[in-house]
Every structure is written in structure tokens, then in C-alpha cells.
Specification:
Elements (H helix, E strand, L loop, with lengths): L1 H4 L5 H11 L1 H14 L5 H13 L4 H8 L10 H13 L3 H13 L6 H13 L3 H10 L1 H8 L2 H13 L3 H10 L9 H13 L3 H13 L6 H13 L3 H13 L8 H8 L6 H15 L6 H11 L7 H13 L6 H13 L5 H17 L7 H20 L5 H19 L1 H4 L19 E5 L3 E6 L16 H8 L26 E7 L2 H13 L3 E9 L9 E3 L2 E3 L11 E3 L7 E12 L2 E10 L6 H8 L13 H7 L8 E9 L5 E5 L4 H8 L2 E2 L2 H11 L27
Parallel strand pairs: 3-10
Antiparallel strand pairs: 1-2, 2-3, 4-9, 4-10, 5-8, 6-7, 8-9, 8-12, 10-11
Helix pairs in contact: 2-3, 2-4, 3-4, 4-5, 4-6, 5-6, 6-7, 6-8, 7-8, 8-9, 8-11, 9-10, 9-11, 11-12, 11-13, 12-13, 13-14, 13-15, 14-15, 14-16, 15-16, 15-17, 17-18, 17-19, 18-20, 19-20, 19-21, 21-22, 21-23, 22-23, 22-24, 23-24, 23-27, 24-27
Length: 714
Amino acid sequence: ALRLSGARLDAVACGAAAGGGGWRFSLALLGAVRWSGLGPSVIMLNVAIGACGGGGEWRQPLALLGAARHLRLRPDMGTCNAALGACRRRLRWAEVQQLLEEAPRSGLRPDAITCSASAGLCSSRGAWREALRLLEETPQLGAAASRSAVAWDTAIGVCSSRGGWRRSLRLLGEMPARGLRPDAIAFASLVIGCQRAHGWDAALLLLGWTTCRGLRPEASTLQAVVSACERRRRWEAGLSLASRALRSGAECGLHIHLWSLAKLGVTEGEAVQGAVQEAGERLEAGCQCPPRDLSLLAWALSSVPNCDSELLRLVVDRAVGSIEDFTLQDLSLLAWALVALGAPERRLLDAIASRLVEKLRAFDAPSPPRSVLAGLLLDATGVVWALNFASILGGGLVESVRSALLPMGAFLDGPQVWGGVPTPSAAPVGRGPRGEPGVVLDLWDRLVVEKPAGWQVDTDEDAAAPALSRRLRGLLPPRHWPLARDLDHHYGFLHRLDVPGSGLILAAKTYAAYYDLRLQLSAGELDRDYAVLCHGWMPRRGLSRINAPVHWSAGSLWQASYPSTICRQGRPSLTRLKVLAHVVRGGWAFSFVAVRIVTGRRHQIRVHLMHVGHPTVCDSKYSSAAIAGSDSTWCPHNFIHRYRLAFLDAKQRRHEARSALPQDLAGALEQLCSRDARSEEQIRPWLQGSCPTMKWRQRGPRVHPCADFTPKKK
């Protein structure tokens, strides 16, 4: 009918078709135009390729590009860029390289869009050196890049995102010589890169340059600088720079003022109340607030005493209405904030759970890098953890998440694990030589290791201590078990133990096992039980749970005398207790306690017991020097021993590993006298090398008044 009427079908019509009916309808329309004799144009071809790319397709755009000559069309650079964009969305690096090589042979000159798309793909693959090599080795692309500030912004962002922030500084310095003026985007990328690489001095200096040049820093720039100041305890500088940037008219979200104050430890006072009021007024007035801003605003509210319930309601309403636009990271942060607020908004948490499953099912990258999958795992299990902590986690959701995560782990394992017979670990099962780690339980894809006191599980705490990861690599050669050398996945360790503590550590041999166990940990399916000796006679019936947020304050402005503290800025933390015995030694009273942690914050048991007035024995960080010195005369190290782990294997069968008290702790316990017959009866099995089974109450635990730190809404 169009041909008979003499109408001309153009790119507008094709674009409308793509927007209304999807990329398949756009392709069908393009085919109809060809057979009707109306003569498709290059613009129509570009729109169709773009529609396919927007729909997640990459093969169809390449097929259309290859069929252009059959349509008697001469593709332009817009056609090539549309195909590049489609391949970039699907992380098809080989196809991008092929397109870049063929473009000059077809007489096409790559432009700034080509450069940005190609460098952006390098960034998503974690290959910033490839991005720079791409600019240097492709003359046409390099020429286009040299004339475009956009291309340079992209190159700076690629380098900064992968730790090459010094190279980014050099690129920034080269821009004026090429007649280009650095813009706010370039500065933002570099500031964020400096902050991630702990180059906080450079981050502060760059933000100062940004404001001096009359540029308006973005929210991400301010967040990076504030985070750098918080890490380096330069909170006054952070507050000053944030205030100056806000006064300069920086284009920041409504969350940034309150978030900056909360990040730098300012949670009370007129400034906080003003920031809360400002955020509420702007939300009430209909101010735009993207999902990331809503999540960060909710996080900031979780640190404010007596949180404003009206502002929280506004945040919840906005989030429910825009839940489709949230990324996995935004969902995780928002769910965590709701739990920290003590405000389990059921309708929002249900929407978060549904969106989590949708996002996981829709994730379909053919060759995602390990860092991308590690981030996805962290965000997905973060949502599961929050729902479990709020006691609304359903078994159906856990299974849906598991069915999405396990194939990702199997993809990372590759054929060396799933393509043949698994290689067993090289160590015999049993306690290791004195002072050395040993294997307690060895399954084909996961194992339990016993850590002696003085060993570290990762590299975050004490560089002088021997690293358990090196011992694990000795048991699991990386050529067979690549997870054992992957820092993004914590070398396969599922949790940690403080250096002075001892006990069981669960580790995965395969990525699939790691993803499965991380989900178990977040869903509360993994038991971690400890034997602890602490000061004072803890009431047997007055305290069975400590619910108090723990904040790791070492190196931040909140640090006072202790590495971890109890404060509103902390992460939700729950410890369960069962007093086994009261004992004495030379006028000192002690309690022997079984502990089960629901959460796993750093130094959680130590700081929780100190918080309720019962610091652990021989703890130089959380008790006075006099007490710790007295303890050290009869107890060799901190008396915390993880004696039991329980978890599921790949076939969902329950396994349990136990570890008796090490000889040095058993010897210390032998020096104590029981207060009564009941205490003596409880201690006897532990001195005989046994680990008695505990029955933990599932509902209605008693809470000592000082042990409950649940935030209350106004």
C-alpha cells in the first residue's frame, strides 16, 4: 500500500517501529521495505542495527552489516558504530577488533564514538592496557581520538577504573598540548581512580583543581573524595571540600549532603538535621532521584539517630515506584539500609526480591570477566543476607538465586574442573603438625582447614603473620584449581578468623562450590560455632543474644581505642550465646561460653562481648593492658576457637566438621577451677578432647538491655 501510494518509508518510521514493537519488528519492517521495492536507506539500516543492539542482540547487527552490499547500501561510520555498540553490550571483544580492522579497508574513518565504544569495552573487560594499545596501534582510531575530548575522557576513565591512575594523570597533562580542555568527566574519572588506588592526596588536589577551573564536580567525584578522606582520617578536609563543592553549585543528587556527613561520622547536630530536612523537602517537591541516590540516601539515614519516618516513607515510595531501574548493587545497598534502619518495609523488600531474580535471569554475558561475576555474587548474596536478617527469606528465592549463580561458577571453572576427573587435594585429613594448618574434612569441591593461632586467612590484617592462602595453594595446585589464586574471590575462603584465634575455616576448591557456599552463608544455612573464655560471670539466663551494629573503625575517623566499635554507622551484627560454665582463677572470675554468630563482622565476638562487659581472655585489643598482661601469664593467645562448621555439599547433603580445643587452650582451661558442679560437668568433655553438641533456641531469645542496639524510628 505504501508503494502504491508513493509514500517514502524513512528512518523515522523504522525507528518508531523499533521503539514500539522491538527489534524483531524493526527487522521485519526492513525486510518488507526491501521486497516492496521502496529502497531502504543507510539511515534505516543504522536504526535497525541499533534496535538489535538495544535488544541485546549482537549476531543480527553483524549479519545486517555483512548483508549491506546485497541491499545495495554503502555502510557509513554510523553503521559501524551501531554494530560496535551492540558487540560492546555483549562483551564481544573479538568481533570489535574485527570491525576496527575492516573499517579502514572499507574507506571508513573511525571517529570519537568508535574510540569511546572500543575503549569502554576494554574497561568492562578490565583491560585498560589494551585500551591504550588500541589507541596507539590503530592510526585511524588514534587520529580520531586525538581530536575528541570525549575519546580522551573515555581513555582516562578506562585507565583510572583499573588502577592505572598515574597513566591517567599523564593523559590529563597531554590534553592541552592537543588543543583539548579537560572537562568535569575527565576529572571525575581520575578522582575516582585515585581514591580506589589510595592516592587520596591526588584526589583532594584534583577536586580543588576542578572547583578552581569553574567546573562543577559530579556526585561521584565528591563521593570518591569523601571516601578517600574518611579512609585517611582527614574528615575535616572532607567536610570542607564537600561544603565548598556544594556551595559552588555542584550538580549532585539530593543524597550527597547527608551522605557526606554520615560517611565522615557526623550523625547528629544542626548540620545533619538540616540535611535531612533538605532531602525531605526536595523529595516532597518531586525532585529527581536516581536509584543509586535513593540507595545512598537510605544508607545515610541508617546512621542518623531517631530516623525521620516521613523521609523514610518518601524514600520507600520512590524506590517501589522505580524498582525496575535499580541495578543489583543498588538493590543490595537499599536492602542492607532497610535492615540497618530496623525498618523491614515488606512491600519494598518483596519488590527487591522479585527484581533480584529478574536481574539474575536476564544476565547473559557470553564471556564475563571474573571481577564482574565477583561483583554480581556480592550484590546478589547481599540482598539474600538482608532478607534473611529481616526473617522474610523464602526457600523459593534461595533456590532461584542458586540456580542462577551456580552456572556462573561452573563457567569460571572451565573444562579443567568439569571436563574430567577432579584432582584430589594433596594433604591427608587430620590435624597438622604443631603450629601448622591441617585438613579436617576434604570433599571433592570443598574442604575444611584448621587454622592455628598466629596464621592469617587473608592479607588485610597482619602482614607479618603467615598467610593461609599460600598453604591452600600448596594443597590445591592452581593449574588444577584456579580459584586458589583468585583474589577477587578471596582465594576460595568463605570467611575469616582473627589472627590470634584458632579453629575451622571453610574453603571452596571450585568456583561453583564458592558461589554455592556464599549463598549458604548469606541465607543462614551455614553454622559457625565457637568456644570462648571471657571475663566475669555472665548470667546464665539473662543474656543469650547480642544485637549491636559493628563498625570496623581502624584507619577511619571513628577509631578511638579499638579497631571495631559499636555505633550506628556499623553493620547489623548478631551474636548468640550459651553460658556453659563459671570458673575462677586466683580471684578472677571467668565464663566459658558457646557462641554462634549469625553475622560475621570483623572482631564481632570480641567487640560484642566487650560491649556487654565481658571481654575475651588474653585480648590485647579489647581489654586493658593490665588485664591482657595478667591473662598472658597463663593463656598463650586469645581464647576464641571455632570448633564446629556445618554446611551443605553440592548435592544438598549436610556435612559437619569439628575441632577439639588445641592443646595450649585446653591447658589454660585446666588451670581454672569450676564454680559449681554444673560448671565442672560442662567443662569436662572439652578437656577430654570432645566438642559437645549444642541445642540452640530458634525463637524468642532473651536479650540483655545493653545488648540490644536496634535503631528505633521516630
